[in-house]
Amino acid sequence: MELSENKSQIWYLVLSSDWKSVSGEEDARENSREEKSSDGKNGSVNSNENWKQYLPVEERKGKWKISDDEEGIRLVSNPLKEYKKGRKVFVVEIKGQPVREERGEIWMRELKIVREATPVDIKELGLYFGQE
Question: Is residue 92 part of a domain?
Fold first, then answer.
C-alpha cells in the first residue's frame, strides 16, 4: 500500500440488510446528492452482488471473493459513515495490493469475510450498534 496510514488497518466491508455491498453511491442517491472521492470517481459499483454466499459459516471464515469489476471492492477503515440501522459490518482479510487507495479507503480485487464486526471492534471508531 502506498499510503502509510493504510498499512496497519483493519478493513471493513459494509453490507445492506439484503446482503449487498454499500458504497458512497447508495448514500448519495438517498441524500439526493452525489459524493465523489478526491479523484472525482464515485464509490465502487459492486452493490448489485449478493454477498450471502461469501459469509463465514460457524467458526470458519467465508470463501475468497474475486471481483469481476476492474475497480475492485471498496473497503473502509472506519465504517461510521456507511453504517445505518439494518446494515452489517464485517472484518475482512485482503489478498494482494489495492487497485486504488485513498486515506481510509481501499479497493481490492480479492477478499475474504472473516467475521461480523463486534461492538468492541468498532467502538473506538465512534460506532455503536443500534445507531441510525
Answer: yes
Which residue in this structure is represented by grid cell 442517491?
A: 29
Question: Over the range 68-86, which residues count as b (16 or more CB within 10 Å of their CB) and which as e?
Answer: eeebbbbbbbbbeebbeee
pLDDT tens for the chain, 132 residues: list them.
777 777 778 899 999 989 998 875 544 444 433 333 333 333 333 456 789 999 999 889 999 999 988 889 999 999 888 888 889 999 999 999 999 999 899 999 999 999 998 888 877 777 666 544
Using CA atoms of 110, 114, 116, 119 in order, give the dihedral in degrees to the nearest 10: -110
Report the Cα 44 to chain-centroid distance in Å: 10
Is 129 within the bounds of a domain?
A: no
In a domain, 128, yes or no: no
Number of independent structural domains in the chain: 1
